[in-house]
User: Fold these one by one.
Assistant:
Number 1:
Amino acid sequence: MSYRIPEALIGEENAGRAAAQGEDYAALGRRLARAGVDVETITAKVAAFAVAVPTWGVGTGGTRFARFPGPGEPRGIFDKLEDCATIHQLTRATPGCSPHFPWDKVDDYQELTERAAALGVGFDAVNSNTFQDQPGQPLSYKFGSLAHSHKAVRDQAVAHNVQCIEIGEKLGSKALTVWIADGSNFPGQSNLNRVFDWYLESMSEIYARLPGDWRVFLEHKFYEPAFYSTVISDWGTSLMAAQALGPKAHCLVDLGHHAPNVNIEQVVSRLIRVGRLAGFHLNDSKYGDDDLDAGSIDPFRLFLLFNELVGASARGAPGFNPAYMLDQSHNVTDPIESLMVSAMEAQRAYAQALIVDREALAAAQAENDVMLAHRVLKAGFVADVSPILAEARLRNGGAIDPIAAYRASNYRKVKAKERPAVTSSTSGIV
Ligand code: LRH
Ligand code: MN
């Protein structure tokens, strides 16, 4: 039987922190009450907030230069599920994990579903992969996949996506995420209009195979691995595709997939307006698609994003039902610690946005009282909502301090013994 963190250990860890937590929570409650905010309302919403963990994120990530695997690396999807379950056990914020195929391919998906259920987690959106060639794959994706100039390659990519839907149905997923690397490195290499026709043609075949209650998430990215043009490069192109395909098609926003300084919260506001926001791959970045931990570089940007989402929810925006996922690469930290902290940073941005006095904000905006409007918004960001996040975890049966509990459990050391060390330090993200 592989090691799981004993619930008793979490209880002991919490017992030592409960008094301080109670004090901090009560003090925050009093302060928020003075501002007309009911702390219990915020805590309940935060406790119900869920963000999915990427199965490919629990193994050490790398770059094109190198990857430095750590101790106790997951050897496959069953180890990855254990680690995803540990993240949820301590944070109570990540009940779902998002699998990627064929990286997570197994022979018996019933067994996988049962193992996940036994570990207390489920499966969120499934991710297809036509950006790598698999051993024995008949046709290469070197020059594209769903938008390849050869129909046979497009058909192969369509078949893979249909297979991902069939696997997802066995796992209980309700969405397929399609990110393609298709693009060009040289002007003239591809017909910029024709490739979009081929993409739509391929996606419409995939769309036709979606079960009634499924959605398909189109993920745009402005460059990499293509360095001159990318077929689905921005939200406008993604929205054109979603509207051409049908009501089940939505636009997924990966925070690292935009040109520097793009106002992503405004992009999100536009997608919400037309009811086509699929949701997010949350992460952070300073330069390109760095896949750094959410909220680690620019937490104010994450707050501004959740401010748009809370505003949309408050006004009852039609079709507003975003899916939240993390999509990160952990090259220098313990992936479990990074994913726990990132899930908590998403909760933090959500709680801060819930604190914003929306009436006062709307009034100041109407009067063009710029400084007042900015300060009313900023008041949410500068509030330390840590006691609310801890209270939500505690009430959900998690750890007041997940990192401390995780380290006290020696989970990584035990897994290092259970899982033979991975010697090869190949390059590449996973
Ligand atoms: C592409 C991407 C996509 C995943 C991959 C692992 O950059 O964000 O969402 O398939 O990372
Ligand atoms: Mn992504």
Number 2:
Amino acid sequence: MDKIVIDGGAPLRGSVDVSGAKNAALPTLAAALLAEGDHVVRNVPNLADVRTMGRLLGSMECAFERDPAGHVARIRVPAAITPEAPYELVKTMRASVVVLGPLAARWGKARVSLPGGCAIGARPIDQHLKGLAALGAKITLEHGYVDVEVPGGRLKGTVFTFDGQTVTGTENIMMAATLAEGRTVLENCAREPEVVDLANALNRMGARIEGAGTAELRIDGVESLRPLDHAVIPDRIEAGTFLVAGALPGNDVTVMGCVPGHLEALIEKLRTVGADVKEVAGGVRVVGDGRPRPTDIRTQPHPGFPTDMQAQMMVLLCLAEGSSRLTETVFENRYMHVQELQRLGADITVDGKTAVVRGVPALSGAPVMASDLRASAALVLAGLAAKGTTEVQRVYHLDRGYERIEAKLAPLGARITRVKA
Ligand code: EPZ
């Protein structure tokens, strides 16, 4: 198992490119199940999760291949598939659940393993199942699997309101409704850029979706869809992680290829803490001038402050001149990184949803353990800022969502290497 070793304190200078978005690529790859034929998805990040989605599609008799760099995926969906997502694959990536909607809509049946527990929260899929049931599907849960049967083989348009905003829930039901009979209106939808990107991809396939990016989606079902050819959006969370790296004291980083409009809540907070953030041609430049100011942050669904940036932003606030309050409202257990940051000398107390971060002048390097994807990114950022050596273990978490992060940071001057543990 690899670990990342960082000799901290080196100033970061220069520009770094952003990869395609993991959380746009995964549902877009699953959308291929909605139409027989040859599909192409471009700007796909070369990540463990993308490979898992490829294996999942393969287990359904779809052909899946990527170009040598791993950024262009080609999927051949045959006339008949096995509409099943096995536990062995779903347990490694809960996002596998996004095959549920396409399978139910296109094949009238699906058998998908329940995702099970997750480090950051319970993460039930009740809204996904309620939405499918509202479209007329019969759902049974047995032996850890969701079994879906669509009477008559075709879903029926309906009006459905999500109890709470859910990103993959919205994506699943939006995909299912594209082939339903009649119009579907979905209320209280997630508005994340990845949802909008998926809607654009589906409309390229011949779907009729309106309202993406707002709380209401209107979908007029069609008889069939054509194969996809779509390039996914840049990864705003990878971009955000590099922007926070640039805002650390003494750094000057330009993040190329990101969409500033996808990062407004984060950029607003970086400016509040005193970082100099400027839009430049093709990207965003951030300069961390001295110790940041403290601020309060509340995570929320988009366009609010993204929960996937909470841990990284906490690192910056660990070095602030004063105390900050972070309130995590999206997931109930997303402070696993706190104990590890305390090992680096951070001063943080957690009380339920709220973490109080009292800034310290400096962090000191130590061995730390990653617990989940974004926590591991935060530990890498902390290691870059800390004096001395930090070893981040269990980096398989990191590889799920960051493409060769050490190879992207080293050219900025980071003293970072990956070693086989
Ligand atoms: C997506 O997960 C992202 N994953 C997550 O990114 C991200 O943290 C999350 O959205 C929130 O932005 C992908 O897109 C693959 P939700 P998702 O359904 O869709 C509750 C990363 O780091 N809920 O929007 O699973 C749920 O428990 C990952 O890249 C229900 O109660 O998140 C949570 O508290 C981590 N019932 C809240 O809603 C449901 O049926 C939001 O979850 C569905 C969700």
Number 3:
Amino acid sequence: MDSSGPVGPGCRGGALSARPECSPHPSDSTQLVQECLKQFEVTEAQLRQIQASLLGSMEQALLGQNGPAPAVRMLPAYVGSTPHGTEQGDFVVLELGATGASLRVLWVTLTGTEGSRVEPRSREFVIPPDVMLGPGQQLFDFAARCLAEFLEALPVHSRTLPLGFNFSFPCHQTGLDQSTLISWTKGFKCSDVEGQDVVRLLREALKRQGVTSLSVVAVVNDTVGTMMGCDPGLGPCEVGLVVDTGTNACYMEEARHVAALDEDRGRVCVSVEWGSFGDDRALGLVLTPFDHALDLESLNPGAQRFEKLIGGLYLGELVRLVLAHLAQHGLLFGGCTPPALLSRGTLGLEHVAELQDPSAGTARVLTVLQSLGLSPGASDVGLVQSVCMAVSTRAARLCATALAAVLGRLQHSREQQALQLSVATGGRVLARLPRFRSLLQETVMLLAPECSVTFIPSEDGGGRGVAVVTAVAARLAAHRCLLEETLAPFRLDQEQLVVVQAQMREAMAQGLRGEASSLRMLPTYVRATPDGSERGDFLALDLGGTHFRVLLVRVAAGGVQITSQVYAIPEQVAQGTGRQLFDHIVDCIVDFQQRQGLSGQSLPLGFTFSFPCRQLGLDQGILLTWTKGFNASDCEGQDVVTLLREAIGRRQAVELNVVAIVNDTVGTMMSCGYEDHRCEVGLIVGTGTNACYMEELQNVAGVPGDSGRMCINMEWGAFGDDGRLSVPSTCFDASVDRASINPGKQRFEKLISGMYLGEIVRHILLHLNSLGVLFRGQQTQRLQSRDIFKTKFLSEIESDSLALRQVRAILEDLGLPLTSDDALVVREVCQAVSRRAAQLCGAGVAAVVEKIRENRGLEELAVTVGVDGTLYKLHPHFSSLVADTVRALAPRCAVTFLQSEDGSGKGAALVTAVACRLAQMARV
Ligand code: 0WK
Ligand code: BGC
Ligand code: BGC
């Protein structure tokens, strides 16, 4: 710096000396003084330029487009859930960083009733300089000891008190209690903290110091605490402004404008971190040599340039540098530069506040200067005050400019020209420099005239606000525990799944041996999968899934052609009489034949009948019990093919040759087997669930012959109906079972399939609603109605491509009054329920493929599983979770899952084709 500018500490030619350096009083002093102070004047044009540049940086950062050195950071503060006003309880707040070399501990009691306040108890602890610059552990241990000391005198009574950590530094927050320090500011520079989660560091320190009565539930930036502490009676504060040792602001931004967040509804609090504005030279036009000198000697040169123009930590230093400059140029203190004026930190905020206080008379100013080791003359008072005024005026106007930029952002974000809002303010610069406050208001009105701003000084530096955020965090943390507790039984670990696999193997063996077992292991009389030589036209029926279909299946050399028609099975038919049901089926067949010009033709027909049937032959199946919402009378215990034939018989002029009845699992296996000959397992995960596979005939009791294989319909939906399934049954499963038309039956199915998952979720949501975790505990009528939460919602809500906003849309269509937190909770519930279903299904498939491998005495087995069913096909993660579980539980089986394209109708036709071919060969 040239001789005309300020000098570095100490004296010319090097080392600091106690003896003041003196220089002659220049003739043109007034002009020199004017020149010097003029540097601190910022014109309105410059302010507007800074305002525009800052607004530009803010919007760039919101879009996630930060340059190499982000001008401002725009950090989401995870405070979206605004206080209900009902928050109550005792909270401890630890404030670190807001007020420089001290930390404050507060005990805040929230009454939960508007207007009634309990004065917080607080204590300030001075932080030794070596602690502010030493190892991070030392700083956090110091904080923990202060907390312990503070609590000693207070009625803690072995409770665990929620602690809110007011940590006033730039942090990437990833949760209300997770925050990574980006960089220190304001006189702090502890090692091993930047890049770390400061909540973890505090928790570890509390542990090391044996403080067990505190649980850290939230970390909050001081601007957020200031905004949240704003008395709701004075109107919602949507901006929090702090000017203390450092400076910063936060405000409520539309969530959809924050690229870093996956949310578009509602608002979220964003900490601007404007202290770093200008680090990319945007401030070049207003920075003075004094600012550069201050920056060079600071702990973080080149950083926080904007803060160093405004923050209370720097105002005194700037004044000192100017006073030193003026003294060295003989313009002050008789041209003598006392050592005090050359040593950093001599002048603090309180000095500037006193020196510039217009009501402080000359005597007072002289006293203050003498207390600093200076020997001022009366003539110096005016100049010293002007210097203080120049520095703090610039600070106030620049702070106002930044605030005006934030207001401009709010105008953009709310698409409102005129804005009326309250700004909560905190910090000693605002509190101690009255001129600062008035200049701030004036300049804001100048730069943002359309905004009518009410400034609301925070009464306790944001302590109450931090307590409110902590209360909200505590509430969310408590909700998180309740949610974890509720969902824990749905989280199955590998060990539990291995047990399920073993229990299924045991039940399979018992079922095959014809012993009592919840797995009926029904022989299907399908002995082979298609070999591609099948030919002909076949009719097929597909009953039991979401849709009833009639199909015309043409099997030719070139492949299989299918024409099909979906028909509805009204509930009153599905739950009417058997006669009604089968007459309805024949009506559909006749309608189909007419549409396809097949009337009068008697094509071989394959009947996919997706219910448990004991087959006595390919075309004989005794219905054992209805499942999946069907309950037609006079059918159970009857041969379904007979019932169909009788219905055909009741209909004049209809000729149909029912050749085979197959289960949809068998149809699916056959249909996929036509494409992939290794397909020896059929799996359905749709309305219901079930599996079949090719078993060695010798293992099938009750079916003559012991060579070759036969397809076994496991009817695994009933697995566990004998109580031998160790998977914990939750009260929600019990509610779904109780409300079903077949209580106590199809236990495994009711844990897995599409007919039930939505209902399980609905019951869990009702439970969480009753606990106050969801929908603010408000009763939601809509959720009381059965089947209102469709299983397809799970598939939609869990889709990765669906942002939270779409989750909300689905739920709002259900008329649920939800917050964004609620949408997250609902998604988590859906994930837990579908994950359990997929894992259990995977454990079942693992049991089957291991059985086949062992049947064949193979080290390794490569097998294909043909799959169908809406849940398996539409759910975004179900199929991969099933495959992961099978890989984990049957590592020696290479399992390919082949989704059936044409459903099991084709399979039924192929079974019919095989039967016809075999019958043909038998006749030849
Ligand atoms: C389509 C098949 C049908 C089966 C259904 C199961 O063609 O046989 O019953 O899948 O899935 P859902 O329709 O129950 O979801
Ligand atoms: C920090 C901010 C804080 C402000 C006021 C700045 O140095 O980066 O996080 O809000 O000081 O304390
Ligand atoms: C039935 C099975 C059928 C499964 C899938 C179950 O309810 O009992 O026969 O395979 O649903 O549709």
Number 4:
Amino acid sequence: MDELLQQIAAYRQEIENQPANGADSLEAYRIKFLGTKGIVKNLFTEMRNVPADKKKEFGLILNDFKQLAEAKYENWKQQLEGTGTTTVAAIDVTLPGDALPLGTRHPINLFLNHVISIFNRLGFSVAEGPEIEDDWHNFTALNLPEHHPARDMQDTFYIQQNPDWLLRTHTSNTQIRAMEKEQLPIRIICPGRVYRNETISARSHCFFHQIEGLYIDENVSFADLKQTLYFFVQEMYGKDVKVRFRPSYFPFTEPSAEMDISCQLCHGEGCAVCKRTGWLEILGCGMVHPKVLENCNIDPEKYSGFAFGMGIERPALLKYGINDIRLFSENDVRFLRQFTSAT
Ligand code: 2U9
């Protein structure tokens, strides 16, 4: 019995001094101490040679030793798993990783990005400006001086603390800022959110998105404007699209026009969407008013330019078959999830 106890003490020492490294060493340890022909099993077999009055004492020591051997094994194993030094077979590094849940692009952005990509190909770059603007950049520089009746065309949100500040009513403030500080020629498109004090309904909202364009150089003509916009609608709606220009009035352009395209639903036949006319109005445009050029220190005798502006929500409603403009700003994921990156 004494000899057995000495042996157990020596094994205890060995286990305690055993460094816990290497998957192979762990397996060798398991076979040596915990295997079917291992040390623990053999010691239990020795029980039959222990005198009856010592069996209980020996049994307790042996159980204690067994627990030590098993605890060492478990700790060692966990340590190896934690440090990633388990055998290569345990982790197949060639398996694909877990897929991350992907979001979708907002339909307004899908539409805007498509418009931007078309104008990019014509050499227009994107410019952005502030949504909180001063009176000069939103109105006065655009030939809308104080008390000009055209200011009544748009109901404006003014900032209470400073009546000179407002939420921009169009993205034209961005073009004014570009003309004030950029070198000519300028060829930009300006996408962004704009604000108007309107009652919210299925058809209109107090904020919406616009994309405007501006090209200023020597000898820019109305023919350039027509060709640019014709290219745009052909790329956007297909080669069969027809266009027409109707004279219009905007304080910042002269002459001014509105551009219609043949209805994309009935192909000009006449339907409820085009109010039986066969035409859909998609944008306003014109030659930049000489006064606007002067306001930005550009010589109207030397330079000319064209500008255009379109709302995004209405054509996006049409494109995606949506019947309520409020869906665009409610962030209902059941709505948003339906849009993929396809335009
Ligand atoms: C500068 C000079 C001229 C931008 C223009 C329009 C015509 C136009 C409307 C379309 C639908 C606004 O969102 S909407 O209600 N816009 O019809 N916008 S010309 O003219 C400019 C802009 C900047 C310096």
